[in-house]
Amino acid sequence: MAPGAGKLTADQLNTLMLVERVASALSTVGIITIMGTFAASRQFRNPIHRLIFINAFYNAFDITATMISLSGPAAGDNSALCQFQGFLMQMFPVADVMWTFVMAVDVYLIVFRRYDAASLRKLEIKYTAVITFIAFIPAFVFLFIRTAEKGPFYGSVTVRPEPNSSTSRQTGTDSQC
After folding, report:
1. Is position 173 within any domain?
2. Is residue 176 part of a domain?
């Protein structure tokens, strides 16, 4: 590969930041719609919609990380902003996947085990505790991992595949920070 071919230009970084922030803004509109609909309509207050409503709070933290965009890495790998962004990006996408899983579990319980709304509501507290705990532990632990050679675990990095080589890690974007 030619020298400097793997680095992103300032225009590419600005485009990346714009795309991240526009996508985050659209997600924010979705979260506001979910919360508004849930609050305004009793018809949407069933077990599955309640889980979607709870998950919207977790998504709000995920969006916070993507809205930070390149500001985290620009502040430096050791900055509180970069570490906070890395923590959010580690914890909340994982939690989002787990919320999707428990929604599927709820559907199973409703269809095959004939659970009623009261039984499912009791599970929501357990779901919230387990999901938060499982997602929080590694995200929190990673805040304290650092080496002299590589620095903190959370830091600025772009990971992209390149032809005929292993994954390239470049400074300059917010994939982990």
Report:
1. no
2. no
Token pair in block for residue 48: 């599955």
pTM of whole model > 0.90?
no
Write out pLDDT tens, residues 34-81: 999 999 999 998 999 999 999 999 999 999 999 998 899 889 999 999
Give the total number of structural domains in the chain: 1
Scanning the structure block, which residue is given the tokens 């590694």?
138
Length of the chain equals 177
Which phi and psi angles does 15 have, rounded to 5°?
A: -65, -45
- Where in 77-167 does DSSP place strands (E)? 146-147, 151-152, 158-160
State yes or no: pLDDT of 25 exceeds 50.
Answer: yes
Residue 17: CB atoms within 10 A of its CB come to 19
Residue for token pair 């979607």: 52
